[in-house]
């Protein structure tokens, strides 16, 4: 069973210059650390979840872990991101709208500080990020180009634009239109707004073919379930996360990446269609490799990585840790 642990950063400074003390980091680890003669971990692999995930999203890697599997040799570190509940966020700190408007780079620096303080690591073997976690993985490659040997970018992009920008903005508007939101100074979560925002987001997670395979009552039931789940999400947490995503833009900076890079897309992904995102992203990163596969689950087909297990093994093999 995957269980969380917690670490407290004594102090963290945001890109805005604001500083908060005692920020909590939720995380889990899978595997056994291997160390060099000086005691430094040499097989660290960071997994970063997407918009709606947390440390438990590392479950998508479980089919790739075990004897003879691509990730058998790695010590996997899977934290919950800055701004997501149970790590520090507007809701979990109690700061609400006083919580700094963080950026994708803040999210990366938050994990960087955590890794440097918690673990004896000079350099990660790799970073794997999915969707919004892919934004962060790219930022890792740009901001800390010498800190990892490889990047695996799953269903992601280099710049939020077009329909994705519109989705985030419309979700924010739905929440703010709920009278209970009260400019973010609510006593009770504006659950109507978060319900509608989550129902709207549901329409893009799967492929068009998947939605067409459901009868109308099945589709309605799924929409209602998504809305009910959304009612449990904090409104300011959603808006702050969406704001960070909408400002994400690494166009013109990808030349900084030195790590070997694998860009993975899904043909039926409505958020990041390969022709618009996966392929152009790969072309912007020198010597990167690309894998595109099919999934009726669309964007959420990222949880079917066993489909490309052979290709992942081939990419990772040159980077397997060697004990000195």
Automatic annotation (TrEMBL):
<dbReference type="Pfam" id="PF00561">
    <property type="entry name" value="Abhydrolase_1"/>
</dbReference>
<feature type="active site">
    <location>
        <position position="269"/>
    </location>
</feature>
<protein>
    <submittedName>
        <fullName>Homoserine acetyltransferase</fullName>
    </submittedName>
</protein>
<dbReference type="GO" id="GO:0009092">
    <property type="term" value="P:homoserine metabolic process"/>
</dbReference>
<feature type="active site">
    <location>
        <position position="299"/>
    </location>
</feature>
<keyword id="KW-0808">Transferase</keyword>
<dbReference type="GO" id="GO:0004414">
    <property type="term" value="F:homoserine O-acetyltransferase activity"/>
</dbReference>
<dbReference type="GO" id="GO:0009086">
    <property type="term" value="P:methionine biosynthetic process"/>
</dbReference>
<dbReference type="InterPro" id="IPR000073">
    <property type="entry name" value="AB_hydrolase_1"/>
</dbReference>
<dbReference type="InterPro" id="IPR029058">
    <property type="entry name" value="AB_hydrolase_fold"/>
</dbReference>
<dbReference type="InterPro" id="IPR008220">
    <property type="entry name" value="HAT_MetX-like"/>
</dbReference>
<feature type="active site" description="Nucleophile">
    <location>
        <position position="131"/>
    </location>
</feature>
<feature type="domain" description="AB hydrolase-1">
    <location>
        <begin position="46"/>
        <end position="294"/>
    </location>
</feature>
